[in-house]
């Protein structure tokens, strides 16, 4: 059974740094990149947009496409393959729930704008506190 690493990712530099760290540190591991679509925002814009879509799964995958394509490009630089997963929900809660299926989580220390961090809270901190497996926070 291989070592399984979960790397939550968005479009931030910190998330890409976490993926690079995971690829360098766990080069023999099975790495899954998770993008959480439709997380809360001050006005619930993304979540509402997804809820009103005709096909929620298709809308989630469309929103995640660029982020996951970028993650695959980073993995290709390391001559590595990654698995991808897209889920809908509150980012921290969704990541903690997904973490139960992995041996460790590697997450960027923060992402988003200052206002996002003030309204939503620090996702990395919540993951560290709630994860059932070890978490590495990359700065």
TrEMBL record:
Pfam families: Usp. Coiled coil: none annotated. Residues 3-139 form the UspA domain. Gene3D superfamilies: HUPs. It comes from the Archaea. SUPFAM superfamilies: Adenine nucleotide alpha hydrolases-like (SSF52402). InterPro entries: Rossmann-like_a/b/a_fold (IPR014729), Universal_stress_UspA (IPR006015), UspA (IPR006016). PANTHER family: STRESS RESPONSE PROTEIN NHAX, UNIVERSAL STRESS PROTEIN. Belongs to the universal stress protein A family. This is Universal stress protein. It comes from Haloplanus litoreus. The lineage of its organism: Archaea, Methanobacteriati, Methanobacteriota, Stenosarchaea group, Halobacteria.
């Amino acid at each position: 059974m291989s070592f399984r690493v979960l790397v939550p990712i968005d479009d931030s530099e910190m998330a890409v740094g976490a993926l690079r760290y995971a690829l360098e540190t766990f080069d023999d591991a099975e790495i899954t990149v998770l993008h959480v679509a439709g997380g809360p925002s001050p006005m619930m814009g993304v979540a509402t947009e997804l809820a009103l879509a005709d096909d929620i799964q298709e809308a989630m995958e469309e929103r995640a496409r660029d982020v996951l394509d970028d993650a695959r490009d980073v993995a290709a630089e390391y001559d590595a393959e990654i698995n991808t997963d897209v889920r809908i929900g509150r980012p921290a809660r969704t990541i903690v729930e997904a973490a139960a299926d992995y041996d460790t989580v590697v997450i960027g220390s923060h992402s988003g704008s200052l206002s996002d961090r003030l309204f939503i809270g620090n996702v990395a901190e919540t993951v560290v506190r709630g994860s059932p497996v070890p978490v590495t926070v990359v700065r």
